[in-house]
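Milestone M4 deliverable, item 7.
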Amino acid sequence: PYKDAVVVQANNDSLPDILLVGNFYENNIEMGRYDADYGTLLLNRGNGVLEVAPFDNFAITGQVRHIHPLKIKGKDAFILARNNDSAMVITIDNQ
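Output delivered:
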């Protein structure tokens, strides 16, 4: 399950892309943990078309509940709040 999303610029094409984050561990024992998502990037191809793109250089782990954009030395970055874990800061290299 996705818990939050943020608009990103992932490929320098001037179209807004979307980064989705989530995971959920507190499920009942019959269902198991929902922990297979390491962040999902949706690239905007225009005309309402979004394409799933993999992350090549990192994985977002844990139960991410919120993501918030920020700037670090002028570069776009994102802080992720993870349930029962430390915060995580990431940047997305434009593809």
